[in-house]
Amino acid sequence: MSWDGPLFDNHMHIDPRNGRGLDAVRDFHRAGGTHLMLVGKTARDWGIDARDVPSFLLAYERTLGLARDINEETPVTAYAAVGYHPSEMTGIAEACGVAYALELGFGLLDVWERLYDEGRITAVGEVGRPHYPVPEAVWEASNEFMQACLSFSKRSGCPVQLHTEHFEEAQFAEVGAMIAQAGHPPGIVKHFCPPFPDLARRNGMTASVVASREAVVRALATGEPFLMETDYIDDLTRPGAVLGPKTVPKRTLSLLDSGELDREMCWRIHAELPERVYGVDLSAP
C-alpha cells in the first residue's frame, strides 16, 4: 500500500563523531522517513567532560548544529531535544557529589527554557532516572529532578522525553502520580515505552514504542495511537543498536502492506500525535 504522508521517528541519536552521521539520516529517508526527533547524546559523546552549565551548553550547541545540518543537507526534517541523561547525573554524582549533580540539573532547567522560548529546541530529553542499580541517594535525587522536569514542562510548555527503568503497571502509576503532582503537563513522552499506549495515556504520558514488529503489533491491538522510535545509537562499534535508522519507515510500510496497520491509524501515529505532542507542523518543509 502506498503512503504519501509523514513517517516520524520519535527518538534517534545521530553521531557524526563516532557513527555514520548524515549517511544514517539519508538511509532513513531512502526507506521513506521524513521527520525525526534528534535526541542529543551525552556531552561525553561529543568529547566534552561536562561538569557545569557552560560545558553542557557547548554540547547542546553541537546537537543544535547537527540538527541544522540535517535540515540543510538532507531532505529530512529534524527537531532537536537536549537534556541531562540519568547516566550523566549518576557520573557527576559519583565524581562531585549527589547535591552538586542535582543543583547542576536545576541550573540546566533555565537553559532549556531559554532554548525552547527561542525556538531552538522542540523538546527536552532524555531526562528521568537510571535503568540500572544506583545508590539510594542517587535514586532519590533522580526522582527529585524528574519531578522538577515535569514541573518545568507544565510551566514552560516544553515537551519532555522521559528515560526510566522498564515500566510495569506499578511504575506507570508511580510516574503518573508525579505527573499529576506537576499539574498534568500534556507533553510528557515515555521513551522506550512498553507496548501499552492505553496505560501510558491513563497515567498522563504519551507512549513512544520501539519499532520492533512484536511491540508495534501489540501496541496497535490497544487501538490507542502511539509514537514510534528506533532509539538508533549511531555508533560504529555498535552497528544497528538499538534498531537501525531504516526501521520505523520500513516497519510502518510493511504493516500497511499487510493490513495490520490502516491508513487512519498510520496518520494518527505519524502526523496527528507528534503534531499535538510537540506543537509542530509535519506538512511544513
CATH superfamily: Metal-dependent hydrolases
Helix fraction, binned, reads: 40-55%
Tally of structural domains: 1
Query: Using only CA atoms, what is the Rg?
Result: 18 Å
Residue share in β-strands: 5-15%
Low-confidence stretches: none
Following the backbone from N to C, one meets helices and strands in this order, namely EHEHEHHEHEHEHEHEHH
Mass-distribution shape: globular
Number of strand segments: 8
How far apart are the termini? Answer: 24 Å
The SS-based structural class is alpha/beta
How many distinct helices? 10
Mean pLDDT: 96
Write out the strand line-up for the largest beta sheet, numbering strands in chain order.
1-2-3-4-5-6-7-8
Largest sheet, described in full? 8 strands, parallel
Please describe what this structure looks like.
With 285 residues, the protein is of the alpha/beta class. The chain has one domain (8-278): Alpha-Beta Barrel (TIM Barrel). Helices cover 48% and strands 14% of the residues. The chain has ten helices and eight strands. The chain has helices at residues 22-30, 53-73, 86-96, 98-117, 136-156, 169-181, 197-202, 213-220, 247-258, 263-278; strands at 8-12, 35-39, 77-82, 123-128, 160-163, 188-193, 206-210, 227-229. An eight-stranded parallel sheet has the order 1-2-3-4-5-6-7-8. The longest helix has 21 residues, at 53-73. The chain is globular and about 55 Å long.
